[in-house]
């Protein structure tokens, strides 16, 4: 059984993750990347109705927290979800809170 120190460290990681995705714009951006891996900053900004600058700030924060990662492709960066756990959590949130049967995230 884990001791409380390990449990506390896990709780800190979970809390940090939840703080990042608790922003509706960031959550929407994660959904966009899940639906179409490899989107660029400009494509994510357009899909989420954000300025490129705002999208860039959110993307940087999510990459810093290891939620997303980017790959350089010539002069553009393409974004991907870093871990399957993130996708599982976002899908669970979508399932729990979606009002429509038409989910935009593949299940």
Count of individual helical segments: 5
Biggest sheet features: 3 strands, antiparallel
- Helix and strand content put the structural class at alpha+beta
Question: Which stretches are low in confidence, meaning pLDDT under 50 for 5 or more residues running?
Answer: none
- Biggest β-sheet: strands ordered side by side in the sheet: 1-3-2
**Nearest-integer average pLDDT:** 90
Overall, the morphology is: globular
Strand content: 5-15%
Oligomeric status? single chain
Percent of residues in helices: 55-70%
Report the span from N to C terminus. 33 Å
Number of strands: 3
| Element-level helix/strand string | HHEHHEEH
| Whole-angstrom Rg | 15 Å
Pfam families: HTH_5
Organism: Acinetobacter pollinis
Protein name: Winged helix-turn-helix transcriptional regulator
Domain HTH arsR-type: 4-101
Topology:
Layout lengths: L3 H18 L2 H12 L3 E2 H7 L4 H13 L3 E6 L2 E6 L2 H14 L10
Antiparallel strand pairs: 1-3, 2-3
InterPro entries: ArsR-like_HTH (IPR011991), HTH_ArsR_DNA-bd_dom (IPR001845), WH-like_DNA-bd_sf (IPR036388), WH_DNA-bd_sf (IPR036390)
Protein name: Winged helix-turn-helix transcriptional regulator
Organism: Acinetobacter pollinis
Give structural notes.
α3 packs across α4. The chain has a three-stranded antiparallel sheet. β2 and β3 form a beta hairpin. 60% of the residues lie in helices and 13% in strands. The model has no long low-confidence stretch (mean pLDDT 90). It contains five helices and three strands, in the order ααβααββα. It has 107 residues and is an alpha+beta fold.
